[in-house]
Amino acid sequence: MMRLSLLILSFTLFAILTACGQKQKPNVHRNLPGNNLVEFVQDKKHKEMFVDPVDDTISYKKIVDNIYKDNKNKIYKLTACFRTISEDTLLTTQYFKDITDFFDLKTFRTVKDGFFITRGKVYLWWGNSDGEYPVEVVGADPKTFVPFDSIAGGTDKKSVFYGGPPEDFSKIDGADPKTIKVLNPERGCWNCSNCYFIDDKNVYYGLQKIKGADPKTFTLLNLDTIDAKDKNRKYFNGEPIK
Fold this sequence. Notes:
The chain is mostly beta strands. It has one helix spanning 2-17; strands spanning 41-42, 49-52, 61-64, 67-69, 75-86, 89-98, 109-110, 115-118, 121-128, 131-136, 146-147, 153-155, 160-163, 169-171, 181-183, 196-198, 203-205, 208-209, 219-220, 228-229, 234-236, 239-241. The chain has 1 helix and 22 strands. The strands form 5 sheets. Strands 1-2-6-5-4-3 form a 6-stranded mixed beta sheet. The model is unreliable at 1-19 and 21-29 (pLDDT under 50). It holds the Pfam family DKNYY.
């Protein structure tokens, strides 16, 4: 019975792998760059997790972070795709994603927290079940862009950016990058799009300015039905509570 269970698991894992990172017909070899040898390594602490690492035969040279180069000067990012095999089993498959057409090593610079610069533009590495991909902070100045510490976005010398994956980053119209402050509710998260901001003149919820809100007295409350207040009123989800 044990051998039969292992055999079923192996066939299930192989079926998952053939679909990882790309659309393929059943029983067609997956052909993931850097990972063509099927190998299942079980996590020692978390028995429900398996990893299929990149092949030992790959001789790509690591350049910086998880960026690699092959002998033909093609550029790759070491990433991974994830698949749930069953209710209590997760498989992570590592592979090299070709980013040659997008990535320029000469202009590459790491900012922090996944943000980076290449070809004069600001990007964030973001991931889904098929691995990481770059999301551009459109319009951001690469020389002055600084990410926020606790939410998706940041500032440059002229603008405040917010939003982020899986949606695009957007500018908060009228927000002052020199005086902007982040007020993220306890129920908020890194990319939940429900963050408050204040600058020296206005209060914002997400990308929208809250008319009549007082930035000097605006504070978070983090209650179930009231998340902020100022001297004039209380607020929930950016809306005044009557």
